[in-house]
Amino acid sequence: MNVDYAKIGLKVGLEIHQQLNTQTKLFCSCPPALFKEEPEITFLRRLRPTQSELGQVDPAAFFEFQKGVKVLYEANRATSCLVEMDEEPPHPLNMEAVEVVLTAALMMNMQPIDEVHVMRKTVIDGSNTTGFQRTCIIASDGWIKVGEKTIPMQAASLEEDAARKTGTQDDGKTICYRIDRLGIPLIEVATAPVIYSPTEAQEVAFAIGRILRDTGKVMRGLGTIRQDLNVSLPNGALIEIKGVQELELISKVVEYEVQRQLGLIQVKEELQKRGVKAEELKEEFIDVSEVFRQTKCKVIRKAVDRGQKFSGILKRELMPGFRVGTELSDRAKFWGRVGGIFHTDEMPAYGVTAEEVEALRKAAGASEEDAVVFVADTAENVADALKAVVERAREAIDGVPAETRTAKEDGTTRYMRPRPGAARMYPETDIPPSLITSAFVDKIRSNLPEPAEKKLERLMKEFSLNEKLAKQIVDSEYGVLFEAVVKESGVSATTVAVFLTETLKALKRDGVQVEKVADDQVMEIFRGVSSGEIVKEAVADVFVWLSKNEGKNLQDAVGALGLKMFSKAELEALVDGAIAANRQSVDRLGKKAFGMLMGIVMKEVRGKADPELVSKLLKERLE
Amino acid sequence: MRKCHTSRRDTFKPVNATPIARVKNNEITMLTDDYQKRDATKKLVLKPKFSEEVALVKFYPGLDPAVIDWYVEKGCKGILLEGTGLGHVSKYCFDAIKNAVKHGVVVALASQCIWGRVNMNVYDTGRDLLSLGVIPLEDMFPETALVKLMWVLGQTRDPKEAKKLLKTNIAGEFSPRTMPDEIGVDGESADER
Description:
A: 20 helices; B: four-stranded parallel sheet; 5 helices
């Protein structure tokens, strides 16, 4: 789709969240780490809405409470204490995390605030044991340069990460969350809505990501960074898209959202042309169990609603695999707890026959130009689902409803929840305010990480990298690791740089989960190279093996891959053997037999011996 | 370790901690890594001086603050308050506490509760006590805290230095993390399953 984004008035704002690699979590002394093993501790909780300090009950919390959902939390001793369980008040704010956020904020030319006040933001999905997420603003009003353009930065905040969902039990009535992630510090950086195209959104996100990495204190790998996008069109709406995990996906998500909004605007125009009025869409539902008494479709039993003059609208595609009908369906799922909806735009299908559709239309009193939506579930769920469908259909007449959506891995988005009201924050009274003194700021300001251009220059000079490779390292997530590995292992800087950039990129493309290999394992691999345990040609193989065998080490990899190096004595025997087997040629060619013999020996030992050593031994023998 | 029963053999229990090791049939199985290991390379320095000019004051509704004044007048150098819950002493004692701090007395606080940690940032009373200069002592028992206060005041007479020492974890007398299973009977929980 070719869209002139400037002409349609697209505006995008970014919110970037990244986990900080601090010594401890934000409000306790647990390490910011996850665990993969079975939980040592589990506990069950329910959400019970109570009045806030302001005497109000959160309506969204009350809605969730009515669903009767239980939450099963999982923990282990290494990563959680009573604070994550909300059995102990939070400890004072982690000042190391404040320092990291201040560092990033100063690099983005922001003004630090002088007193940090932690706030609570209501969260009702169970992902926080407290029912709220703690957050605090650290700095505001800055800017960064992206290319020629100046991007205003609104604020830098510090937040606690939420527990991570690990599954559900007994038909979705119990949600399981692991609290290891709860309390890991997150930096949140927000731009002003001054981004005007999908590619620009990606460039800005990339630039911010680089600054965050330059602090040297952010985590790396899938799940450690999450981007939220605010996308708006003048005739559409402001849509908040949550949780884009991959930087590379940002432009696609924006493109799809523009497509969706443009599609919905077309739907609006079409509906207005057809003269559809909101009051014509009534919440009058008809029980059509009778129509489907004999149906071959197993899931159907109940209830329909007639969508006045909606025929053909519901099958319109808004994003790949996503139709107007999906918009209705997502709402029905959220508010009505149903598996989905059926509508006549997609019929006959799913085992529903043409005759049944005809009977259904008749029962609903629907004409050719109407669409019929029907849902199969309990009476209560069906009523809630169809009410949500009617609500969404009414909104279609006005165009794009403002809402919060969640990003999928393919770049499309789905309905997540209504846009929250403004008053979701209230003060966290268990944590005293922390002062940010000018002395503290000055200390950080005088120790800011070197900017990208300076770093590029230094890498080329200090490590003799060529410009291309140095640039790749600066742009990569591995700047800090690169320098550490080269300094500690003594392996050539170019070898390490090529591996950390080009090789890893290629491995990632081939589906290797590169984030499974920890930094100290990479360090171990290169120490192995310098100590002669493995040859540098084997680095990628060892890395891939370690990514598939978590918890193992270099020795395990060497054993499993048969990479054990030939000892000098073994090599000498092999060289002698090769000479003996080719006695005639050797006698005839003398020193000129070197190339042939080298080929024979190396064929046998490739990857398990240093070619230079083989060459040396061979030359000695041929002398 | 705390004596938890008047007469039973298993009276001694680790509180706010888990057992370090299990001894069974004369065999020792270590249960944690979190203890100070013997280290022959470290040189032993003995610091045996203790001060006896300290007092333990348990707060209860009706406690006469004149008790605190009396200790100050008697030249007491440190007072360990046994507070309620997260670390509280009623407001009517504040003047006496303020007076003690003014006279250079080190006033620290541990909780009367068996389990858990003081957190004096949650309620007004706690915050007020902090601003009076009372030192919160994490998850230490009052008994342990008292002995530590005696030792600290044996090392220094400077209230600032004493405060620093009190807040330094010297021999695992407090821990920054409290585990969910560090309470009551093994595996039992108040949560409904």
